[in-house]
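Recall that a protein's primary structure is simply its ordered list of amino acids. Everything else, from secondary elements to tertiary packing, is in principle encoded there. The following example makes that idea concrete.
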Amino acid sequence: MFNKKWLSISLIVVMFILAFYFQTVIPKTGGAIVTSVDVDGKPLKTGSRFANIFALPILAFAVYLLLNSLPNIAVYKKNLERFYKRFYGFKAVILMFLLIAYLVNLMPAFGFTFNSNLIMIPALAILFVYIGHVLKHIHRNYFIGILTPWALSSDKLWDRTHKFGGAVLEICGILLLVGLVFQSFFLEILVTALVSVLVITGIYSYMIFTRSHHHH
């Protein structure tokens, strides 16, 4: 049976194998590669060869190491360990998203022309929805979650904040699909969604904290 922890490792290995393969086959134009093409496949923009080929695999590996190290340095170590059954999926989905972004970013170097938004917007929406779902099951810790001082004050307030925040993030993830219709405003839609999640959840966390202390 395939061990779940190997899924994340396999994704990172695939990214580095692709990186070394792309380093070999992508046409060499000094230290740059094509990062944007027109409808006829002609180059429009170029970027650093090393950065575009190796930056995302290195970032993915760094994210993997960071997430793996959290239980060893966390204050609420047992709480993160309780979350580990879902943590494998959490890591894998983030790494899958980075792999998709990596492939989409490098396609222009081969002369492919396509609307990358048609891939990246749904991928980002799925990432939002999945993380929103996972948030509802995270136990109190200082590294992963909605780390407001009010949520961190007790397990009860943490759970309420994360059930609410997870639902808000899921809704925002679905609303991101509106960006497929209004692609020229997608960056604004994305920023608005992120700010909305932070502000709405922060206000909710503060409200339930003050209400709880008022009752006491």
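Residues 186-215 form the longest helix (30 residues). Strands lie at 32-37, 43-48.
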